[in-house]
Design brief:
Belongs to the glycosyl hydrolase 15 family. By secondary structure, the protein is an alpha+beta fold. It has 14 helices and 28 strands. The protein has a 15-stranded antiparallel β-sheet that branches. Helix 6 runs antiparallel to helix 7 (367-381) and helix 12 runs parallel beside helix 14.
Length: 594
């Protein structure tokens, strides 16, 4: 049986990440990048698809585990009849090659430890050739090579297409395992001292965490979310992946399984805001610069997502040899939604660049030229139907949220010219466009009988993205249309006290069978909207319930299923953690932020 999604913890080096279960098994790891083929894919299959477990012999799940405060260094402990064992897992910032380090330490007594390593390259499909070299175990297949060593040396042997070791540690004794990847055509990279790397990693993460300006309630949850966001950042480019995984289902056993190891434009403004307001200007600037590089080119070709370095080709295909998490097939690599038209991303980009300029991030010479180009395209194309921010596969519609974000694009362009008259632009034309979009949305996207904005023109369906209307400034929070929309979404899309994105049972809207859980980011948006409409006590109560959904090490997936009482969807999800940070700052930041 698969472990629960929330049974995993994350370690990473800001270029890739691994998921470590409560049983001491690393069940997911892609090398050398987030979007590379997995060498441990048990998460989406079984032991034959690759994993690495270190635990006391005969033991199952751990007794306790926790990150070292304000770090991404994980300590897992087992209490056994023989004594207590600790395994410390980390991926230090890489110099040349990615390393996974697992330091085994005796806490008390004498504990017998067993390690089982099964490397399976290309998402569990390739069994590598294993050999010995200079005290290492070396796995090679095609372009991939992995070296395993221990300090001090412990005996290893091959069995059942895996590498095993068994040894005993007493109190205070330590054995470090180091797994290093490199291209198979290159020589082995220099050895890294695991104990020095541990000390450096702890110090580095804690130094980074001290930059957080927020010092209000739930500070630990905010810092953990910021660390998770940092861990999901591809350091060489500044791009931030939506999640570390692919194909974790939105409904166990269902087909809503997507690859989230890419960078979405829809997250850009909320990401930038979270980083700026929490005090991480360097990271915000790196994300802004990634955004500028990614969107450069013909504005008609603007995509909803890009690769880690801004790659545009992300073809979607399936892996038939993996049964999927909890038999949730298919397992997908790539994302076919990359070719969709989503007009809201133009608003996200313009809003992000406006926010970056307003926050004082150093401007780029070509930044305004890109913004003008995007506006020129949008002015002639905004009336088109699109697939909307939820990437529906049931055909294009006139989605209200998309039109609201078109209004945001025009509004931010006009406000930029008003603040910076030295810039050139079509101020009058953009003002007229802004007014026209606003008028159309209020006439065609609002159901006056029900007192709520709708998912798309002429529909009776709702969309949780409409909760963002007051946040982006389309209407003031005290407008009756805003209050009516918030109340309607809470009533009609409520799910166990949280919020679904939209009604998946609506005929033909998303073109997919099955359902999904409550979308955590949308649930945080509801808390924001309740606060903005004067219901702060209700907002804080909802935030407390949402914060309680984090797992034992503070992580959130994309969704939560109230009926199953489990997290669902890809994990950990940047969008969920961004929303947690922003809502905490909204509800508590003005009072207690430093």
């Amino acid at each position: 049986m698969n472990a629960r999604i929330e049974d995993y913890a994350l370690i990473g080096d800001e270029q890739t990440a691994a998921l470590v279960g409560r049983d001491g098994s690393i069940d997911w790891l892609c090398l050398p990048r987030f979007d590379s083929g997995a060498c441990f894919a048990k998460l989406l299959g079984n032991e034959d698809h690759g994993y690495w477990r270190i635990a006391p012999k005969g033991a199952r799940v751990c007794t306790r585990r926790a990150y070292r405060p304000d770090t991404l260094v994980l300590d897992t402990e087992w209490e056994t009849d023989e004594g207590t064992l600790r395994v410390t897992d980390l991926m230090p910032q890489r110099d040349r090659a990615p390393d996974v380090m697992r330091i085994v330490e005796g806490v008390s007594g004498h504990v017998t430890v067993h390690s089982t390593l099964r490397i399976r390259f290309d998402y569990g499909s390739i069994i590598p050739w294993m050999r010995r070299s200079d005290g290492h175990r070396v796995a090679v297949a095609g372009p991939d090579s992995v070296w395993l060593r221990t300090e001090p040396h412990v005996h290893m042997w091959g069995e059942d297409f895996g590498t095993h070791s068994e040894f005993t540690v007493g109190e205070g004794q330590r054995v470090a395992f180091v797994l290093t990847w490199h291209p198979s055509h290159e020589p082995r990279p220099p050895l890294v001292d695991p104990y020095k790397a541990l000390s450096t990693s702890v110090h580095g993460w804690r130094r980074w965490a001290t930059r957080c300006r927020y010092d209000g309630p739930y500070r630990d949850a905010v810092v953990r979310s910021l660390i998770t966001l940092k861990a999901l950042t591809y350091a060489p480019t500044g791009g931030i992946v939506a999640a570390a995984t692919t194909s974790l289902p939105e409904e166990p056993g269902g087909v809503r399984n997507w690859d989230y190891r890419y960078c979405w434009l829809r997250d850009s403004t909320l990401t930038l805001g979270a980083l700026l307001h929490a005090g991480y200007h360097k990271e915000a600037e790196a994300w802004r610069d990634w955004l500028l590089r990614a969107v450069a080119g013909d504005p008609a070709d603007l995509q909803i997502m890009y690769g880690l370095a801004g790659e545009r080709r992300l073809p979607e295909w399936e892996l038939p040899w993996l049964p999927g998490y909890a038999d949730s097939a298919p397992v997908r690599i790539g994302n076919g939604a990359v070719g969709q038209l989503q007009l809201d991303v133009y608003g996200e980009v313009l809003d992000s660049l406006y926010l970056a300029r307003d926050a004082g991030l150093p401007s780029k010479p070509h930044m305004w030229a890109i913004q003008r180009s995007l506006m020129t395209f949008l002015k002639s194309s905004w009336q088109q139907p699109d697939e909307g921010l939820w990437e529906v596969r049931g055909g294009r519609r006139q989605f209200v949220h998309s039109k609201v974000m078109v209004w945001v694009a025009a509004d931010r362009a006009v406000r930029t010219l008003e603040k910076h008259p030295e810039l050139e632009g079509d101020a009058d034309g953009w003002r007229a466009m802004r007014d026209e979009v606003h008028r159309e949305v209020c006439e065609q996207g609002y159901d006056s009988r029900r007192g709520t904005f709708t998912q798309y023109y002429g529909s009776r369906e709702l969309d949780a993205a409409l909760l963002l209307i007051p946040r982006v400034g389309f209407l003031p929070p005290d407008d009756p249309r805003v209050i009516g929309t918030v109340d309607a979404i809470r009533a009609d899309l409520g799910h166990g006290g949280f919020v679904r994105r939209y009604d998946t049972d609506a005929i033909g809207v998303d073109g997919m069978p099955g359902g999904e859980g409550a979308f955590l980011a949308c649930s945080f948006w509801l808390a924001d909207a309740l606060h903005m409409t004067g219901r702060t006590a209700e907002a804080r109560a909802l935030f407390e319930r949402l914060a309680s959904l984090t797992n034992d090490v503070g992580l959130l997936a994309e969704e939560y299923d109230p009926e199953l009482g489990r997290q669902v969807g890809n994990f950990p999800q940047a969008f969920s953690h961004i929303a947690l940070v922003n809502t905490a700052l909204t509800l508590f930041g003005d009072e207690q932020a430093g």
